[in-house]
Amino acid sequence: MEKQYKFSLATSISKAQAGQLLAGYKVHVTRSVKPDPSQMQDILKFAGAQYMKSMPSKPQDKLVVISCAEDQPLCLPAIKAGIPVVGTEFILTGILRQELDLESFSLFQDEAKSQKKAVQKK
């Protein structure tokens, strides 16, 4: 299983003992995400994150939106603000490996790039 999911159980346990993976993070979860938002809220709380009920529209350090393809229109305020939008595997795999990888689990990258270009042209 460790080989399949590219992690070391001993390393993950060691990192987990050092502190909560998402300590200091604020996370919003969109409505169609699976596991559903109430389950994700429990997972996030366990990992040390603060759960945000509403979609953020202003960037902050350690602020992330967890979403899915179905909820792309809901993410536009976050995308426009440059807030990272990621899939659930960011959290689920992140907890398993005890590491955060925004880039690998980023969603809507094309939309984010076009938003950056639009801002640069202004």
Tell me about this structure.
The chain is 43% helix and 11% strand. The chain is an alpha/beta fold and 122 residues long. It has a single domain (2-121), classed as Rossmann fold. The longest helix has 13 residues, at 109-121. The N and C termini lie far apart (49 Å). Residues 20-102 form the BRCT domain.
Determine the strand fraction and express it as a percent band.
5-15%
Average the pLDDT over all residues and give the rounded result: 86
Shape: globular
Run of helices and strands: HHEHEEHEHH
CA radius of gyration is 15 Å
Helix content: 40-55%
Examine the secondary-structure arrangement and name the CATH architecture.
3-Layer(aba) Sandwich
CATH superfamily, by name, is BRCT domain
Strand order of the largest sheet: 2-1-3-4
Protein name: BRCT domain-containing protein
Main location: nucleus
Subcellular location: Nucleus
GO cellular component, one term: nucleus
